[in-house]
Specification:
Layout lengths: L27 E5 L11 E5 L10 H14 L17 H8 L4 E6 L6 H14 L4 E5 H6 L9 H10 L5 E5 L5 H10 L5 E7 L2 H7 L4 H6 L21 E4 L8 H14 L6
Parallel strand pairs: 3-5, 3-6, 4-5, 6-7
Antiparallel strand pairs: 1-2
Helix pairs in contact: 3-9
Length: 270
């Protein structure tokens, strides 16, 4: 049999656009022709919906599907909105805080020292009287992004959800260049500072402070960066911190390197 049909509930991972079907219109659907169809006809075509030939749905089935559709639907954005300029702008806030806002984006393999550097740097900036905030990948997954996992698509969504301000220290594996560059594009004035902790996989796996590499090697974690998912090293990062003779630099030394950059570029004074 060339075609067969089934009723299913589709739960997409991302929002999709749907055109409403009016009561005066016959339901329609898009059918994809199978691979054995000729090349000339291998495309999506509209045809009367086969659902019209299916038996009526039970009330329980209808209620369940309606709930899914309600959860999946999107609310149209209002067009009757206007932008209001605020008399207090970015420059005014910088003068008040005596600092220039930036994002220090720390990237590297798991176990390379990202969270340690982020916390140590945050403490140093606080000691200097600077307002900084640390965004750590694991911590975000405990709260705002707890519905996301470690798959490639989920990590991209994690990064897109981050809304940074002031002296923001972001600590994420963020293994894909396209994700890091999309964040850089939002801060085109040079206030995106990419810090690459260039530690070898061997060193990170030997440290393995959370025991994640062991689980990944045992097949208990899928899509783990460095094991069965790639890490794309930065090509033009602002700061690169390398291991020394197979040893990770101390948190103090790494912090000094980042602070020196911030001082030199004028981020720590108005």
């Amino acid at each position: 049999m060339l075609f067969s049909f089934s009723r299913c509930i589709v739960c997409p991972a991302l929002p999709i656009s749907l055109s409403p079907c009016r009561a005066t219109q016959a339901p329609r659907s898009a059918d994809l022709l199978p691979p054995r169809a000729s090349a000339a006809t291998h495309h999506a075509v509209e045809r009367p919906s086969p659902l019209a030939r299916l038996p009526p749905r039970s009330s329980a089935s209808t209620a369940g599907e309606d709930r899914v559709l309600q959860m999946s639907s999107t609310v149209p954005k209002s067009s009757n909105i206007f932008w209001h300029d605020c008399p207090v702008g970015k420059t005014d806030r910088q003068k008040l805080l005596k600092q220039k806002g930036c994002v220090v984006w720390i990237t590297g393999l798991s176990g390379s020292g990202k969270s340690t550097l982020a916390c140590t740097l945050g403490r140093e900036l606080h000691t200097r009287g600077k307002l900084a905030y640390v965004l750590d990948g694991d911590n975000l997954r405990h709260g705002l992004n707890k519905d996301l996992g470690f798959a490639a698509e989920d990590r991209a969504e994690n990064i897109r959800r981050v809304d940074a301000g002031l002296l923001c220290i972001a600590s994420f594996i963020s293994p894909y260049r396209r994700d890091r560059e999309s964040c850089r594009a939002l801060l085109s004035d040079g206030s995106f500072i990419e810090v690459f902790l260039n530690m070898s996989l061997e060193l990170c796996e030997a440290r393995d402070p959370k025991g994640l590499y062991k689980l990944a090697r045992a097949g208990k974690i899928k899509g783990f960066t460095g094991i069965d998912d790639p890490y794309e090293a930065p090509l033009n990062c602002e700061i690169e911190i390398k291991e020394l003779d197979g040893v990770c630099p101390s948190p103090s030394d790494m912090t000094k390197q980042v602070v020196a950059y911030l001082e030199d570029k004028g981020f720590l004074h108005e």
